[in-house]
C-alpha cells in the first residue's frame, strides 16, 4: 500500500508542476530553476567545506597534542629503541647457544673420525706385520681357527669389512 501512496504523491506533484509551467511566465520559471540549482549547489558545498574543516581540525588537534608535550616523540623513539635492543640481545644469545652446540658436535665428530683413522692405521700396520712375518701369498690361520679354508674365508671377510673413511669436510687433509 505504501508504494501506491508514494506513486500517487509523485503523480500529483508532477501534475502541479505541469500546471505551474503552463500558467506562470517563462522568466519566473527560469528564475525559480536558477534559485533551486543555487540552493542545491550551496547545500552540497556547505557539506564539503564542513567535512574539510572537521578533518583539518582533527589534524591540527593531533599536531598540537604532539607538539605540546615536550619530548613526546623522543620518548616514544627511545622506548622503541630499547625494546628493539632487548629483542636483538635475546636473538644474539640464542644464536651463540646454537653455534656453541653445533661447534661442540662438530669437534666431537672430528675427534671420532681421527680415532677411527688411527684404529684403521693400527689394523693396517698389524696386517702388514703379519704378512711380512710369513711367506708371501700364505697367510697364517687366525687364532682359534682349525681349518685353513675357514681361516681364508674369515680373512677375506675381515679385509672387506675394513671401511675407508673419507676426510671430514673442512679438514686440511
Main attributes of the structure:
single chain, elongated, mainly alpha, 82% helix
Structure, explained:
The protein is mostly helical and 173 residues long. 82% of the residues lie in helices and 0% in strands. The protein is built from four helices and no strands. The chain has helices at residues 2-23, 26-68, 72-133, 148-161. The model has no long low-confidence stretch (mean pLDDT 78).
Give the gist of this structure.
The protein is built from four helices and no strands. With 173 residues, the protein is mainly alpha-helical.
Q: DSSP strand (E) fraction?
A: under 5%
Overall average pLDDT: 78
Oligomeric state of this protein: single chain
Global Rg? 51 Å
| Biggest sheet overview | none
Derived structural class: mainly alpha
Query: Helix and strand string, N-terminal first?
Result: HHHH
Instruction: Please give the share of residues in helix.
Output: over 70%
Topology overview:
Elements (H helix, E strand, L loop, with lengths): L1 H22 L2 H43 L3 H62 L14 H14 L12
Amino acid at each position: 500500500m505504501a508504494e501506491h501512496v508514494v506513486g500517487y504523491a509523485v503523480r500529483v506533484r508532477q501534475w502541479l508542476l505541469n500546471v505551474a509551467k503552463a500558467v506562470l511566465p517563462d522568466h519566473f520559471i527560469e528564475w525559480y530553476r536558477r534559485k533551486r540549482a543555487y540552493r542545491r549547489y550551496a547545500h552540497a558545498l556547505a557539506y564539503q567545506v564542513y567535512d574539510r574543516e572537521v578533518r583539518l581540525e582533527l589534524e591540527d588537534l593531533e599536531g598540537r597534542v604532539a607538539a605540546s608535550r615536550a619530548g613526546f616523540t623522543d620518548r616514544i623513539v627511545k622506548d622503541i629503541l630499547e625494546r628493539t635492543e632487548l629483542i636483538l640481545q635475546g636473538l644474539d644469545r640464542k644464536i651463540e647457544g646454537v653455534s656453541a652446540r653445533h661447534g661442540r658436535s662438530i669437534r666431537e665428530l672430528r675427534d671420532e673420525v681421527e680415532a677411527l683413522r688411527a684404529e684403521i692405521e693400527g689394523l693396517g700396520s698389524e696386517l702388514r706385520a703379519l704378512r711380512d712375518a710369513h711367506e708371501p701369498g700364505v697367510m697364517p690361520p687366525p687364532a682359534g681357527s682349525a681349518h685353513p679354508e675357514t681361516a681364508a674365508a674369515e680373512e677375506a671377510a675381515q679385509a672387506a669389512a675394513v671401511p675407508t673413511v673419507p676426510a671430514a669436510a673442512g679438514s686440511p687433509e
